[in-house]
Amino acid sequence: MSHRSADVVVLGGGSGGYAAAIRSAELGRSVILIEENELGGTCLHQGCIPTKALLHSAEVADSARTASQFGVDVTFDGVDLEKVLSYQNTIVTRLHKGLQGLVDSYGITVVNGRGRLVGPNGVEVDDEVITGGAVVLATGSSPRTLPGIGIGIGGRVVTSDQALVLPSVPKKAIILGGGVIGVEFASVWASFGASVTIVEAMPRLVPNEDETISKYLERAFRRRKITAKTGVRVTEVTQNEDAVSVTLGSGDILDADVLLVAVGRGPNTASMGYEETGVMLDKGFVVTSDRLRTTVPNVFAVGDIVPGLQLAHRGFQQGIFVAEEIAGLRPDVIDETGIPRVTYSHPEVASVGLTETAAREKFGENVETVTYDLAGNGKSQILKTSGAVKLVVAPTGVVVGVHMVGDRVGELIGEAQLLYNFEVDAAQAAKFVHAHPTQGEALGEALMAVAGKPLHVHG
Ligand code: NAD
Question: CA separation (Å) from 246 to 154, 197, 249, 323?
């Protein structure tokens, strides 16, 4: 058996893994990065990037369909999914090449193969043992399924992996799960002309978001003729050549061409030697300290295998954190609540910090909230989007939550996350004027309302 070693060995080349590798290399460490598929992981190949390309095609379709509302004469002839997939593929391929070049430019050695942790500092790949001063586990996640009710993936029952590359647009689709993936695919397929029903077990869509935002999203989806059946579970799924049939706890039976199962993603931690080596798992997730150390000294974990938000940019942040921790820089512990969250549906949802409910639990009833409706925002009216910006303010006056819904509000999350992460006083922030006409003004108006001096709000 051959042998190689490096200062840092990273298992998994997705967002968390490659960020740990690049930051370690920047800090002068030798790095070996092990990846069984392709660099970039879920985000680049099955997640963020290809889905956002689909969502952009969906937006273009909506623009074409509604062009006459803006005085532009366009004939909308439909969506050519083959061309959409080719566009999607071009983006992924270009970014993938760029990433390979980037990793190479740092002198990082990439080993292509399936790694297995075989000791506190060793990973076996094929016939080679690779040892590191530190090992970073970054093996990501995969779509969850619901085996209990006969939902095997195959045929008309798909996860986001297959939904991304469907050869044709379904006429009717059922989506199980009204979380981020469910809502984004509902949005794409409705824009492409499908009739979509979402089935969500919790009482509302995007149940992790602030309740006000769910209400606005549900209203916007109703206007788009997307049906949401909330507070209901699926009891049985059957399929044949013609359709998939879904029985709900309420007794209703729904038929469709496709059933997308989007009930969360589970960690990829089985059969990789983690538990055998002493890395403690909890429900499959890797148990870590707040400094992302596992129960084995010098073995760290980042990304979707660590309990919490499963977001690419959290992976980047954790990867950078761990590289700096290994290098002895003692970086600040990451505040998970300060990680921005964006759902790229039409309309978009964007948030950072605490929901109103969470803030009331933490600070008591003196929490203040302001919801500024986009009806009062000029740019949003020009775009013909509805929605709102909601601020959650602690009794001290500090902004502890920003929640937004409306087309393009994802672009406002940068300012929102600075307000939260720098613990900005709302009245202080209200002094800074926003450019007119921008959607950012809605955030400014909400801040001014907290400061007791709203401008475009009825007196
Ligand atoms: P999720 O946790 O966001 O949503 C899953 C939903 O399924 C939940 O609302 C849950 O209540 C519901 N559910 C679970 N079991 C059910 C059942 N039996 N019947 C009906 N509903 C049921 O998970 P997801 O949407 O699958 O996404 C997976 C991960 O990927 C998430 O962590 C998400 O944040 C991430 N992701 C992020 C983005 C983004 O940031 N834009 C995009 C896609 C995915």
Answer: 15, 11, 10, 47
Summarised one tens digit per residue, pLDDT across range 307-365 is: 999 999 999 999 999 999 999 999 999 999 999 999 999 999 999 999 999 999 999 99
Domains and CATH numbers, the chain: 2-142+266-336 (3.50.50.60), 157-263 (3.50.50.60), 347-450 (3.30.390.30)
CA 304 to chain centroid, in Å, comes to 11
**Ligand 1: nearest atom to the Cα of 233:** 19
Among this protein's residues, is 436 annotated catalytic? Answer: yes
Which of 146, 180, 198 has most ligand 1 atoms within 8 Å of CB, for mutation? Answer: 180
The answer to whether residues 450 and 392 touch, using CB atoms and an 8 Å cutoff, is no
Span from the CA of 289 to the centroid of ligand 1 (angstroms): 25
pTM of the model: 0.97
Q: Which residues of 244-255 are buried (b: 16+ CB within 10 A; e: fewer)?
A: bbbbbeeeeebe
**Tokens in use for 379?**
């740019």
Q: How far is the CA of 201 from the centre of ligand 1 (A)?
A: 11
Q: From 143, 113, 90, select the one nearest 38 (Cα to Cα).
A: 113
Q: How far apart are CA 284 and CA 266, in angstroms?
A: 8
First CA to last CA across the chain, in angstroms?
Answer: 78
**Cα–Cα nearest to 200, from 141, 131, 150, 246:** 246
- Which atom of ligand 1 has the smallest separation from the CA of 310? 32
**What confidence tens digit (pLDDT) does each residue in 181-213 have?**
999 999 999 999 999 999 999 999 999 999 999
pLDDT tens for residues 364-385?
999 999 999 999 999 999 999 9
Token pair listed for 187: 């949005």
Write down the catalytic residue from 313, 434, 436, 456. Answer: 436
Mutation probe of ligand 1 site: the residue of 161, 263, 341, 343 with most atoms within 8 A of C-beta: 263
Q: What share of the chain is helix, strand, coil (3-state, %, to 5)?
A: 35, 25, 40
Give the CA count within 13 Å in the CB-facing half-sphere of 435.
2
What percentage of the chain carries pLDDT values higher than 90?
96
